[in-house]
Amino acid sequence: MGLLHIYSQCHIIITMVPEQKRKHQDFEWLGKNMHKLQQKHAGKVVAVVNKHASIGKNAIEAYKISRKQYPDNEPVMSAIPTKDALLL
Question: Is the model's pTM score more than 0.90?
């Protein structure tokens, strides 16, 4: 959870803690690279940590692969759409 700093009554600044920042960057990376992932791994599941994708046949497999490589980080998880699915 981010830290909230309030300066006077008009200014609010939200500071991301490192884990939130990493997850945000991984989420953005996932959005930018989903089309590439879909071309190679359609119908599978991806777990992303530090912009590194771990692919599995299901969520449990992807999660375990990711945690083995990055035991101290929770991955950002997503299903990879099939090739006939429309990505917007």
Answer: no
Tell me how far apart the alpha carbons of residues 19 and 21 are, in angstroms, rounded to a whole number. 5
Per-residue pLDDT of 17-73, as tens digits, reads: 888 999 999 999 999 999 999 999 999 999 999 999 999 999 999 999 999 999 999
Closest CA to 44 of 22, 59, 26: 59
Q: Residue 11 pairs with which residues in a beta bridge?
A: 7
What angle (nearest 5°) sits at the alpha carbon of residue 28, between those of residues 24 and 50? 65
Helices (H), 1-88: 18-41, 59-69
